[in-house]
Design brief:
Elements lengths: L2 H9 L2 H21 L10 H15 L8 H8 L11 H9 L12 H10 L10 H4 L6 H11 L7 E4 L2 H9 L3 E5 L12 H9 L2 E3 L5 H8 L4
Parallel strand pairs: 1-2, 2-3
Helix pairs in contact: 2-3, 3-4, 5-11
């Protein structure tokens, strides 16, 4: 480690590292929103996380803090995030009555690791990678329903982001919103959020038990 990097690291606080992580997360949102299906060169989320981490280390003057192998390993941290406490139990309950599938911007290998690490029990893993488009592009929702062998109106999209649900609803899906702390991008005071209260088919609040509550609403105990 160079003296310059050592000095820079010594100045960073826990708040700084939290900001670093948030900027990394925000880069994902910017990347997926800026991707144009059929025009942009395809790049999966693992690749984005790797390249954006390299860029972020440069921005923060931390080049050389980690080896290339370290950076590669760190970029795959997203494969082993712990799920919400209710997720595994709730998904297994839902899976006893319905076919459960992901529809995520994460690539297939990422989803496989998350599914196994969190013991989530998804019966099918569907990724934007399969359709070469990122949500909220219509290709992802249309493609997912087709792969499941059902009509869009026979699918319920479950998400913690209202923008995702709005796009799914636009393709004919039913919508189930599960509130998660600090996950929603829309402010409760903005009109889009207030309007969502009129079209979301099932709304599970943060005070309820997430996916377990979703299962309960469908009569699964």
């Amino acid at each position: 480690m160079s003296p310059e990097v050592r000095t820079q690291v010594s100045k960073l606080t826990e708040q700084d590292w939290a900001q670093f992580a948030q900027e990394w997360r925000n880069s994902y949102k910017k990347f997926t929103k800026g991707f144009v299906p059929g025009e942009s060169e395809w790049r999966d989320i693992d690749t984005h996380h790797h390249l954006s981490l390299i860029d972020l280390l440069k921005k923060w003057r931390l080049e050389g803090l980690y080896t290339k192998d370290d950076v590669e390993d760190l970029s795959r941290t997203w494969h082993f995030l712990d799920p919400w406490a209710d997720s595994s139990e709730g998904l297994h309950k839902l899976g006893s009555k319905f076919k459960t599938s992901t529809l995520s911007n994460g690539n297939q290998s990422l989803l496989k690791d998350l599914n196994e690490h969190g013991k989530l029990g998804f019966q099918k893993l569907q990724s934007s990678e399969d359709f070469k488009a990122y949500k909220p592009h219509r290709w992802t929702y249309d493609g997912a329903a087709k792969e499941l062998g059902v009509k869009p109106e026979e699918v319920a999209m479950v998400a913690a982001h209202l923008s995702d649900l709005k796009a799914a609803r636009g393709r004919g899906f039913k919508t189930i919103y599960v509130e998660r702390k600090q996950e929603e991008d829309w402010d409760p005071e903005q009109e889009d959020y207030k309007d969502a209260k009129t079209w979301v088919d099932l709304w599970v609040t943060e005070d309820e038990e997430g996916f377990v509550e979703v299962a309960r609403k469908f009569g699964i105990k």
